[in-house]
Each structure stands twice: as C-alpha cells, then as structure tokens.
Amino acid sequence: MLQRILTHSNKTDLVIDLAELISGFLLVGFLWVHMFFVASVLVGPQAFNQVPKFLEAYYLAQIGIPAVIVLILAHMVLAGRRIPNRLQEMKMIWKHSRLLMHYDTWTWVFQVITGVAIGILAAAHIWTVVSRWTINMSISAERVTQSPYFIFYIILLICGEYHVGIGLYRIGVKWGWFKRQKLSKVLDVITLAIIAMGIVSLFVIKSHAGVTGGGGQ
Amino acid sequence: MALRTLKLEIFRYNPNVSGDKPQMQEYILEEEPDMTLFMALTRLREEQDPSLIFDFSCRAAVCGSCAMLINGRPKLACKTMTKDLRKKITLMPLPVFKLIGDLSVDTGSWFRAMNKRLEAWVHTNKEFDPDAQEGRMDNDLALRIYESERCIECGCCVAGCGTAILREEFISSAGLNRLARFFIDPRDERSPDQYFEVIGNEYGTFGCVGLMACDDLCPMEIPLQQQLAFVRRKMLVAGLTGSGR
Ligand code: SF4
Ligand code: SF4
Ligand code: FES
Asked: What is the pLDDT of residues B195-217, one digit of tens each?
C-alpha cells in the first residue's frame, strides 16, 4: 500500500491512456497509407515503381520505417498492458467470454489475438522488405509468388485491418458521441473495402511475376 | 406458444456449509403462461427444494436484488420470461460479488464501498436553511441527473464487465455513472481536480477498455456508453489542465 501511494500518479495513467490512443491513431494512418501505396499497382506497374522513389525522395523510407518500428513497439507495450498476463487471468477472460457470448467482448479477445499475431508477422514482413531494400515490381512479384508468402500476406492484411477497424471502433465508443451501431457499420465497410483492395492488389502483383517489361529491372 | 417442460440447471454451493462443493443441479418444471424466472424459482423452492437460495424483493425490476447469470448473461430474473428462453435454462450467481449461497450474492457491500469511495453525496458548504425556498433547477439538467439516478444497483453491468472481473478495484460503469450524476449537479461544489483524484486513473475511468457489455446489459437501459465517454472526456480535461498529480 505504501509503495502504491508513493508511486501512483493519476496523471501518468492519463498520459499512458493518451499515448496508447495516439500511437494507435498514427499506426492506423500509417497502415491505410501503406495499403494505398500497395494499391498503386492497380494503376499500373509504373505507378508502383514510383512509390519507393517517392518514399526515398522525401526521406519517408529512411526516417519513416524506423519511426514506424518505434511506434509499433511503443503501441505493443502501451496496449499490451491490458492483456491479461497471468495464465489464470487469461482463463478467467476466456471463460467470461464463453459464458457471456457478448459480441463486443469477443471482438476484444480477437483484438488481443490479432495484436499479438501482427507483432510477429509484421516483424517478419519488415525484415524481408528492409533486408533487401528497394521495392519494385519484380522483387515484390517474386516474393508473393512463393505461395507460403502469399498466404502470409493475406493473413497479415486481415489481422492488421481487423485490428485497426475494431481499435478505431473502441476509441470511438470510449471517448465519443457516436452511436455505437452506426460507427461499427461505417468501420466494417472501410475495413472490408481495404481488405478487398489489398487482396486484389496482391493478385495483381502476383500476375506480374515473370512478366518482363513490368518496369522492374 | 405451447407450454413446455423446462429443464433448469442451477448452480448450487453454500460457502457456509463446510465440505459443500460447487455443482450444477438439474430441476424439471412445467412451464406456465407468462411465467417469469421469479415464478419458476419460487415454485421450485416451494415444491421441490426448500434449500434453494436466491434473492427477490420487488418482483418488478425496481429493487435490483434478483440479478443472476441467465444462460451466462447477467439479467434480472423477475423481468425475464421463460417463454423468451430455450427449454434448457442455466442459472448461475453473478460473478465479482461475494457469494452468499447458490444464486444469491452480496451486491450491497460492493455498492456501499463504491459509494463511499466516490463520496456519492452532494458536497456543499452552504448552510441549510429550512425556511428558504428550494433552489431552482433547469428541467433538462434535472432530467440528465435523473438519467443516472435510475440505476437500481443490480450489478448486471459489473458482472458483465471483463475489466471488473479481472481487477477487483475497478470502479465499474455503475460507479462512473454515479459519478457523472454529481459532476453535473450544480449543488455539488467539488472541483474537477477533486474528481480526477478519485477516478482519473486505472481503477477508474482509464481502466475501462470499452467492452460495452455494461451498455448492452443494463436492464434499466441507462446509456452507459455515453456516461462513460462523458466522464472520460471530463477527466481528460481535468487531468490536462488541473493541478492534480
Ligand atoms: S465499457 Fe466494458 S470495460 Fe468499460 S465499464 Fe463497461 S463493460 Fe467494463
Ligand atoms: S447501471 Fe444498470 S446494470 Fe449497472 S447496476 Fe445500475 S441498473 Fe444495474
Ligand atoms: S426482484 Fe426487484 S428487481 Fe427483480
């Protein structure tokens, strides 16, 4: 009790809550922009090849990628504090969710699961891209034609967008004036649209594999 | 709808009887027209098992004493019709609260502690003058205050909240809803700083992760989402501008 009184500060709790919110928002922004960059392939391979040049010209690659990595780590620590860490607590939440069969409680459980999954999958994704830096049609196409990678990307995409959609919904209901049902519908549509856009982009990238004249070289 | 034969699975455990073990016990009961779970349980106790422990008082969704987990969800037993449920019904006591026995829990101590922690009474330095006319209040404001006051302290929101289940000290939406009532009451002279000190933390407003079970489960349909968001925004402002630590 003594230690708690001495160390506890409400301001800190507030700042941590805000930091979680802001890191979350920034990552949402990043992810959506990222998916639009990927979708540039729908315009054409030239557009797609333009993206890394643009990123480098404005130092978005050199500064942006490390910044995103820091953001992800920060968000993992901040949001992760909510994850029940003792086995018994996990069991309690699982049992509670099973008993209650309540939609929003389940989405929270899935948000935790997708969050952990993203942590692992995104690390692998960043590593494969950065370790062979520069992005162009032929490298990307080659990457996604290896079939486990293709599925890997689809899983990462779905986890990421689901996590983002539910995260935004939760921020909205926690702070907001929105009607929950309406907010959730709007976000569902956005999430599905971006997942669809991402999957189509992946197929288009795949279709460019081995095709010369894709501007890849 | 045709009347059915109901199968009730009821949690049995009396912590005051040494050696008693928690178990589910099955009862068979013929459904009656317009039967509520209150009627069903009373019939069981009168005709089959006088040892069954459960709470009721008003039978009209006013007193809040009959909340229990009905097929896993916290609900008022007196307000729940058997015809809205499937034939097999499971009944368990509310989690979080202290178990008295079988379906009966002690919500009273929990709510009393919560009210003490929030000092849920009007704080004022004004001397009370019994001869003076009562102060006037805007009707809209009175209605807003009344909105939170409709809470019957049944505990459904607490029992449905994942955070409350994990963190014993979490003040829960019932507490935050109560606080909102004093926050908007002009007679209460506490400053935002003082409120922030009590609930501007992980055990209060920032502990809520927004699962919204409370909002979906409150039998009085108090708009708990709006109440929680309101308190959260007020506490954000108080925390950023105030002098609290
Ligand atoms: S919104 Fe969820 S976490 Fe917050 S008080 Fe309600 S049930 Fe608990
Ligand atoms: S807020 Fe609603 S669910 Fe919670 S105790 Fe009050 S009446 Fe019951
Ligand atoms: S008996 Fe009073 S609320 Fe059900």
From this structure: 998 888 888 998 898 888 999 99
Question: What pLDDT digit, counting tens, does each position of B59-82 carry?
Answer: 999 999 999 999 999 999 999 999
What distance in angstroms lies between residue A213's CA and the mean position of ligand 3's atoms? 76
Output the pLDDT for position A216: 39
What is the pTM assigned to this prediction? 0.86
Asked if the Cβ–Cβ distance from A100 to B72 is below 8 Å, we say yes
Could you read off the pLDDT of B144-155 as tens digits, one per residue?
999 999 999 999
**Residues on chain A bordering chain B, Cβ-to-Cβ distance under 8 angstroms:** 8-11, 13-14, 16-18, 82, 84, 89, 92-93, 96-102, 104-105, 108, 170-171, 173-177, 180
Domains recognised in chain B with CATH numbers: 5-105 (3.10.20.30), 118-241 (1.10.1060.10)
Which domains, and CATH codes, for chain A?
2-83+100-207 (1.20.1300.10)
For chain B, what is the mean pLDDT?
93
**Which of B95, B202, B209 is nearest residue A108 as measured by Cβ atoms?**
B209
Q: So what's the pLDDT on residue B233?
A: 92
* Pairing assessment for the beta strands B23-30 and B67-70 based on DSSP bridges: unpaired
Write out residues 161-180 of B within 8 Å (CB-CB) of A.
162, 165-166
Protein residue with least CA distance to atom 4, ligand 1: B208
B192 interface with A at CB cutoff 8 Å: no
From the CA of A64, how far away is ligand 2's center (Å)?
Answer: 47
Secondary structure (DSSP) of B67-134:
EEEETTEEEEGGG-BGGGS-SEEEEE--SSSEEEETTEEEHHHHHHHHHHHTT-S----PPP-TTSPP
Residue with tokens 């189509």: A200
> Quick check: B86 and B4 in contact, CB under 8 A?
no
Say whether B26 sits in a helix, a strand or coil: strand
A216 with A139: CB under 8 angstroms?
yes
Judging contacts by C-beta atoms under 8 Å, the chain A residues touching residue B232 are 174-175
Query: Is the C-alpha dihedral spanning A141, A147, A148, A152 positive or negative?
Result: positive
